[in-house]
Amino acid sequence: MRIAIIGAGVVGLSSALALIERGADVTVFDREGVAAGASRGNAGIFADYAVLPESTPDMLRQVPRMLLQPDGPLSLRWRYLPQIAPWLLRFLAAGRPGQARHGTLAMAALMAHVRGDWDHLLSQIGAEDLRVTRGALLAYTSRRAFQADRAGWQARAEHGACDVEPVMGERLHEMEPSLTRDLHYAIHLPNLSHCLNPHGLVERMARAVQQRGGELRLREVAGVTPTETGVRLRLPEGGAVDYDRVVLCAGAHSTALTRSLGLKIPLETERGYNVTLPDPGVTLSRPVSIPEKGYYMTPMSVGLRIGGGVELAGLKAPPRWSRVEVMARHAETMLPGLNRAGEARWMGFRPAMPDTLPVIGPAPGAERVVLAFGHGHLGLTLGATTGQMVAGHIYGSNNRIDSIPYLPTRFG
Ligand SMILES: Cc1cc2nc3c(=O)[nH]c(=O)nc-3n(C[C@H](O)[C@H](O)[C@H](O)COP(=O)(O)OP(=O)(O)OC[C@H]3O[C@@H](n4cnc5c(N)ncnc54)[C@H](O)[C@@H]3O)c2cc1C
């Protein structure tokens, strides 16, 4: 089968590898090259604990306060409000208790396969060295904040998503001596894995695709049209190429292509920022998050990466670097002696669905096009599992996970 994949991010290349494994002849199109999007600079966390939807009754209560902090973990550019309002309404609806429970079960079903699917993918391409399992700490600046989050951690643990261990006082400092003594409370996730170089991982996946006979093409795709026997990709200069199947994995930029199929899918972007410090001057042995401020500090082979946050401002607004500056300054107080010399700033567009679940499945009305986008904060985590599901949809072998909760038809 000749299959075109649009997007050389972690989702597109995971899909390419899974399809090649089943014997497909694969071509990956990307208008900017390998790992040009969100997959390039993410925080590297294989966050298989993240089974709760972003929109929960508890979270919704905190939104007004968060929005009033101009550089807090969540910000909205008010000029963008009219455009994003329908998405926000769906986001609110997804936080109703029944919906949130449905979302949690659906996410937990995916997460149950994350470790095994990455084991398979990494060993297949010889990239096991890029994933380490050193656990993570989520550290709180006050007992109140720690207590407020405990129910959420208990719920995640009950869904089998992670082992959770509270850590307090001296033990926290024994585990991470570089952290400020002003932190007294933390949640320890002993089994969490992280990636030492997300960009390097995606590059290796791309090389593996080529070594297995797949083709990478530095080309934009302007539109997708079903034909009688397959699918036609339209190229911007007017050319066209025909394939038997197409997988659409253009991350936050997928809307332009779903529109070409006549579909209206509520994909938005949650923009995130970070800085990577090549010589941080302090050592963390595992990722540490400060949940109240919405950022992670991840030790990587490329330096210490500090960032996160959510900005709702669409795809076109210029970056607002003050957002990452606030996180980096806060990190300086968490890690006394932090050296920011030579830091590299980055902004990425998370592809976000209002119900937090990715879209994985055949396009309504164009069954030979498989959609795979909308992984939000979890695209690295869910990449390998999504690849398997995409291949399952195309080869009719999706029998591990009930695929219904992720189908694009859920938006009516
Ligand atoms: C600050 C930040 C931190 C994050 N941290 C984590 C984390 O710790 N763990 C985790 O699991 N996830 C994390 N994420 C989320 C994760 O990075 C994304 O969910 C994931 O990278 C999405 O992958 P993708 O392949 O769908 O999209 P992308 O990586 O964005 O790839 C899409 C590709 O499609 C190409 N493209 C777009 N339109 C076209 C077109 N018309 N024609 C051809 N090519 C096109 C683009 O050039 C791009 O290369 C983070 C994201 C951000 C922003």
Automatic annotation (TrEMBL):
One of its GO terms (molecular function) is oxidoreductase activity. Keywords: Oxidoreductase. InterPro entries: FAD-dep_OxRdtase, FAD/NAD-bd_sf. The keyword Oxidoreductase applies. Its EC number is 1.4.99.6. GO terms for cellular component: cytoplasm. Residues 2-391 form the FAD dependent oxidoreductase domain. It comes from the Bacteria. Pfam families: DAO. This is D-amino acid dehydrogenase small subunit. It comes from Pseudooceanicola marinus.
